[in-house]
Fold this sequence. Notes:
The complex is a heterodimer.
Chain A: E1 5-7, E2 10-13, E3 19-24, E4 31-38, E5 42-50, E6 53-57, E7 64-68, E8 74-78, E9 87-94, E10 103-104, E11 108-112
Parallel strand pairs in A: 2-11
Antiparallel strand pairs in A: 1-3, 3-8, 4-5, 4-9, 5-6, 7-8, 9-10, 9-11
Chain B: E1 4-7, E2 10-14, E3 19-25, E4 30-38, E5 45-50, E6 56-59, E7 62-67, E8 72-77, E9 86-94, E10 103-104, E11 108-113
Parallel strand pairs in B: 2-11
Antiparallel strand pairs in B: 1-3, 3-8, 4-5, 4-9, 6-7, 7-8, 9-10, 9-11
Amino acid sequence: DSGVTQTPKHLITATGQRVTLRCSPRSGDLSVYWYQQSLDQGLQFLIQYYNGEERAKGNILERFSAQQFPDLHSELNLSSLELGDSALYFCASSVWDGKETQYFGPGTRLLVL
Amino acid sequence: QQQVKQSPQSLIVQKGGISIINCAYENTAFDYFPWYQQFPGKGPALLIAIRPDVSEKKEGRFTISFNKSAKQFSLHIMDSQPGDSATYFCAASPQGGSARQLTFGSGTQLTVLP
C-alpha cells in the first residue's frame, strides 16, 4: 500500500458526461501528479500540482482540468467525455524536498460508453 | 526529445535466469531514472532508481546500469522468480525545481516461467 488513495476505483459513464476523480496524497506529500494509462498511449503525464499551485502540464486535454485543495487532496475533472477517454487514471504524490520518488495510487478505471 | 524508448515489449525468462530490459532517452535535461513495477490491477510501484552521477546501482536482485554518454540505462533482474512476472516501466524526470513529472517508457511485460 503506497499510502495514496484514489476514489472511485471504477467509473462507468456515457459520452458527453462529466466526472470527477479524487486523490488523497500520502501524509506530508506536497506534490500531486496525474497520469493517464491507456493501451495505445501508455503511461502519460497529465498535470502536477505543488502545494496548491499548478507546477507542470503535460498532454492534458482542454476538456480536462484539475485542482489541489488546501488540505492537499486533488481532483481531476474530465468533461465532454469521449470513448477515447476510457483509461486508467493514476494519481501519484511526492515530497518535494529533493526526493523525487513518486508513490502511485491504485488508480481509477474509467469506462466511457 | 521527451521520449523514453524501452525494449523489449515482452520478455519470457526461465526461473533463475537473468532478465534484462533496456531504455534509451534523448533529453539531456533528464537527471533521475527510476524503474517501476506494475502488477495487473495495481498502480506502478518504484523498484529502483538512479541518478547520472553513478554508472550502476544494485538493490538485492535488481541492478540498474547507466551509460550517460550513450544516454541508455537498463534493468537487470538476477535469479528471476515467477513472482517477478509483471510489467516494468523505465522512466525519466527532468532537472529543476519542483516540476518532476515522469516520462515513461512503453513498458515490458515480463513472464518468468517456473
